[in-house]
Every structure is written in C-alpha cells, then in structure tokens.
Amino acid sequence: MKQEQEFMIEKYFSSRFPPLHSWFDEDTIAIGWGTNVVVAGVKYVQQEPPAIPIKRIEVLHRLKLSNFHVAGVSFTIQPQTATDKKERKWKEIVIFGIKLFENKQKGGDNFDDTASGISGISTYSMAPSVMALQIKPTQQVSIELLLALPTDVDNYIIAAEDEISMKQSEQMFLRQFHLGAMAEDGVYYLLGPRELIEARPCSAEDRISWFLDNEFYVEATNCALAHREELHETSVSEVGKKLVEKLIADGNFDSAASYLPVICGRHKDEWEYYVGEFEKHGHVLKLVPFLPQKQPQLEPECYEYVLIAALYSKASLFLKLILLLPSDLYRIGAVIQRTMNKLQDPNLAKEDRIYLLQALARLYAHERQFDKALQLYLTLKDSGIFAFIRQYHLFKAVKGNIVQLVGINSDLAIRLILDHEGEFVDSGTGTIVTQLSGIPKVQMEYLNQLMQRGEGLEHSNLLIRLYAEHAAERLLPFLRKIDSYDIHRAIEVCKKFKLQPELVFLLGRSGNKQ
C-alpha cells in the first residue's frame, strides 16, 4: 500500500506506467495501470420521462497485482453452448507485463546479464530515465504472461503464469512491451523492443496440470468437465478424485458429496468406494441428495449404510428415506431388525419413537405383512392409514375396525367407506351402520352423505331421529326433500323433541289438521 501511494504521488507515474485499455465487448472495458487492472461495465440508466439513457460505469473486478507491472491486457473467450448464450463473452483476463521478484540468494551469482545490468538501481535513487522501473538491488525481473480468473469483485486466482524469454531487451522500460490480441481466434501477440512472439492458450490437460500443481482442485475439476472430450492423459474421474480427497481431508463433506454425480457418473465401483469413505468418516448422510438409485444401482449395503445412519441419528429422515427409497434397493429384513433393536432403547424420545413405528409399518408393508402394518397404524392413530389402505387395497382387512378408523379421522373414514363401500362389506350397508351405532354423530354424517348419493334410503327413519337429536336445523330440509320415511314415526320423534316447525310440516303432509 505504501509503495502504491508513492507511485500515486510520483510526478512521472504515467511515464513509468502508461495506462492502457482493452474492450472485452461493447459494454465491458478493462483498464491496466501500474500494478492494477480494473474491469468495468457500462450500464444504461433509463431517465424519467423517457429520454436517451444515461451511461454509467460499474466496477466489475479489481485486480491488485503484487510487483507485477501491466504492459498489456486482453481476454480469453468463454466457451459458449446453446443453453448459455446469456453468459458473458469473456472468461479470463490476459495480462502481459514485467514482474519483480526477490532474488532467493544473497549473492548475485545467479543473476542473468539483464538483471545484473539493472541491479544497481535503487528504489530511492532516480533511474537513468523517468520511464524506467525502479528496481531494488535484491530484485530480479522477468517478462510474464498471466491468465487471471476473477472469483468476485476483489478476488481472483492466477490460472496460468508463463515467463516469456525476450533477448536483448532492457526489462526496466515498461513502454517497450505491448500486447495485441485476436481473442476470438485465441491468438495473442507479445511485442518487445526487437521481438514479436505469437502466443496461444495451452491445452486443457496443461491447464489442468497447472491447476493441480498449485492445488486449485475445484478449477482443475471444472476445467476437466468443460474439456472432457479433449482429455487423453487424464480423466474427469482422476482429477475429481483429487478434489474430493482434498475436500474430505479438509472436512468439507457437503462440497465433496455435491461433486460425486459429475465425477462418478455411472461408474458403480467409484460410487461404492466413496460411500465407504463417507461411512468411514461418519458422514454418509451427506450423500442422501446425490446417491443414485439406478444407472448405476449400488449394492444393498450402500443404501443400508445410509438408512442405518439415519436410524441412529435422525428418525424423521429415516422415515422419509423409507418412504422414498424403492424397497428393492436394500434388504428389508435386515433394516426391520435394526429398527426393532432401536425401538428397545429406553432413552428414545417419544417423537422419534413415532417416526420409527411409522417407518416400521411401511417396512412391514414392503414385506407384505399387512396385518402387522395395519396394527401399527391403528395403534399410532396415524391418519396415513387411509392412504395406506387405498394403496394396498386393504378394505376388507379393516372392515371390523371402522370405529377405530373413525376415531383417527371421521371425515377421512367416511370418505374411505363411501368411496369403497362395495369392498368394505359383502352385502348392504347394515354392517357399517351397526358398527357406527356407538358414535351417533358419525353415524348421522355417514347416512347423510350416503343418502345424498341416493343410497341407504332404508335408513331414513334412523336419520330423522339422529337429526332431531343432534342437528335439528337439518331435519326440516330433509323431510321436504324425501318421502321414504314413516311419517307417523317421524311425527312421534318431532313431538318427543318438541320440534314445532317440523311437526307442523309433517301434520300438513299427513292431512291431519289438528
């Protein structure tokens, strides 16, 4: 920062560090000056009332390069596909310039001729020309070409760094070096005092190798994925494995798991290897969103690792997995046994016990042990029993449990009975009406819905009594609507419960004017 401040107040700053720019596209410009590169975008602000939009500049990226002086700036092209046409045109920033670095040896024996020729220049003494860089005696210089990949506004990584050998050039004069480019064709021209060098981007495998050597595992994997068809000496799997191993070593299991689908693909052996690794480290549940169920389908033990881990750590997740995972992926009997063992735990929370019993009911269903599954649902008073009955067509299996079903949810029970009445009983509705006699309000609702469908009219007298006793406001409309009841019995009921409007109606219908 101090050195930058000195540059900013220096009288000859622009002479030593000529500003330069490059348009990446019609709305994006990069400006290089000194040891900084700024990428800015042109934004159009609409005025009110409608008029010509105002152009404003927004800084997209700021790159502060340590001891690297910019002589030229350009960009590489972003690979385009049919689905990402809206992405930016450029990918990386190409930077050409002079780099200063400390000599690792105290002596000057390893200096080349150029370095030794300028090593006597002190930072605090004026150079032979105001255009020359100020270089300390302990520093060496090199001409380099960088590829910088921005990660956000103020951060970036160096994706590639190549030293350029230019003979007979005095490397203290920044103005003597220039960068020209035909970025769309991937051709870059590096101009020195006496040389013109054509440079092209390195191969995908070279780039991947550089990323790995510098421990940029994510970038190496992304590069391998983007250039999968160009790889001959390595593969996405090999590169990705190094990334996953690094993430596991760092304890970042979430990220490691997220990369497995693209790294393992349909390779069953690789999936099973990583399932074992995650299980060994106690993080196999991180694989739940990514574990394949087919193409490839793994060995049953892999899915059982996940289920058992959920069973002993998160009962709600265990239930969800039992409901979602196809039962042919794992050994049902083994999971049932482990679940029953867990239910013996005296310290098991009540809520977790319910989750496990619900899961056990589903496991019994997978094994076609429907009697055990139904008994668990009835014991739990779980409203999921209605969907379960429908799914497996267990209507006759519960025809003796109608009262218990009503106790779980009367509305769902009545709907179930009405929708599948013929499957609940062998003949007529009498059996159901009899079972509901102990819960008259439910019996009334069942008969009401039954008669709305034009059925069960033989129970009209019973429904009149139930209306009179529990829902008198519904009786008169019912009496007016149908005539399949015994009018004399209906009159007696109305007298008993002192329902005057209903009694008047019935007397009028019967012809009795008293």
TrEMBL record:
GO terms for biological process: cellular response to starvation; endosomal vesicle fusion; macroautophagy; protein targeting to vacuole. The lineage of its organism: Eukaryota, Metazoa, Ecdysozoa, Nematoda, Chromadorea. This is Uncharacterized protein. It comes from Panagrolaimus superbus. CHCR repeats lie at residues 401-514. It holds the Pfam family TPR_Vps41. It comes from the Eukaryota. Keywords: Protein transport, Transport. InterPro entries: Clathrin_H-chain/VPS_repeat, Vps41/Vps8. The keyword rRNA-binding does not apply. GO terms for cellular component: HOPS complex; late endosome.
